[in-house]
Amino acid sequence: MSGRSTPGSPHSTADGATDSAAGSTTDSAADDAAEALDPRGLLRQLAPVSVPVPAGSEVRRAAGGPRRARPLPLVVGLLVSLALFAGVTYLALGVGAGFVDRPVLGEVVRHRLAALDGPITFATHASKVPLLVASVLVALWLSWRQGSWRPVVLIGTTGALAVAAATVVKEVTDRTRPPAELWAVQEDGFCYPSRHTVIATAVLLILAYVLTARIASRPARIALWAGAAVLSLLAGLSRLYLGVHWPTDVVAGLVLGTAVPLVVVTVYALRATRPHSRHP
After folding, report:
1. How far is CA 237 from CA 4, 145, 187, 232, in A?
2. How far is CA 122 from CA 110, 236, 265, in A?
3. pLDDT band, very low/low/confident/very high, at 272 (cuts 50, 70, 90)
4. Which of 30-39, 141-150, 165-174, 176-185 is predicted with the least confidence, judged by mean pLDDT?
5. What share of the chain is helix, strand, coil (3-state, %, to 5)?
6. pLDDT, tens digit, for every residue of 216-246?
7. Does 247 sit behind a cis peptide bond, omega within 30 degrees of 0 on the bond before it?
8. What pLDDT, on the 0 to 100 scale, is given for residue 206?
9. Count H helices, E strands: the chain?
10. Is the pLDDT of residue 32 over 80?
11. Main-chain phi, psi angles of 188, to 5 degrees
């Protein structure tokens, strides 16, 4: 008699059961690891109840992920925005922009309307902390909807970097605000650049980028980008209208606010195009 077991022998059955159990264990571990990277998977682990999958999520992912930004145009845009910021900074702090700032601000303040003071004051306050909070909520919703942490990472990083960049530049430049008699609201601290404008511009642009990444309609994408640009400009103009910033503060805020999301998206795009190492 041969010692080899036949496919129907007990030894064969035991070995097959062992291999099957090991395979199922490996598959289970892989599934757990993949679920941990999905926002819905984390919620399933934390919540004792089943979490429904949003309708259409799998359909969009199966049809293809969001369009990836090309690094070269991003790098060019970033360099241009940084060069513009350096030029505005040199004009405002090096040469002295009083010949532009004083007459422009004077004309804006001279033509203020009492009926607009309330709405513009509300809008200027909403362009900072409330906008940051709203952007975080939108990022969480998008991450849930798409089953990816990408919106949270991009939007959260942009918001934090915008606050940090504007605060650091303010402290380094220590530019004095316009005369207090021109103010329609009370402010303190230095004024270059306009932090409200930096935050509003950066957050609105990154929101437009993340939202348009999965929109196929060209008119809809254009409308979103145009809306983000207009709202950013209005946030800057509100600071000028209230008399708490010089015009060059606002221009610098718009340019720096544009540079911040370009930095974040450029780094993300470069990491996405980097070849991944494969282990045997």
Report:
1. 86, 34, 16, 9
2. 20, 13, 30
3. confident
4. 30-39
5. 75, 0, 25
6. 899 999 999 999 999 999 999 999 999 999 9
7. no
8. 97
9. 11, 0
10. no
11. -145, 170
C-alpha span between 261 and 204 (Å, rounded): 9
User: What size, in residues, is the chain?
Assistant: 280
69 touches 265 (CB < 8 A): yes
Q: 245 Cβ partners below 8 Å, 6+ apart? A: 177, 178, 191, 194, 197, 239, 253
> First CA to last CA across the chain, in angstroms?
41
Q: Which residues contact 232 (CB under 8 A, 6 or more apart)?
A: 197, 200, 201, 204, 205, 254, 257
- Stretch 173-182: mean pLDDT: 93
Q: What is the pLDDT of residue 214?
A: 83
SS3 197: helix
Spatial contact of 148 and 58, defined as CB atoms under 8 Å apart: no
- Output the six-digit token pair for 184: 């329609």
Separation CA 97–CA 84 (nearest Å): 15
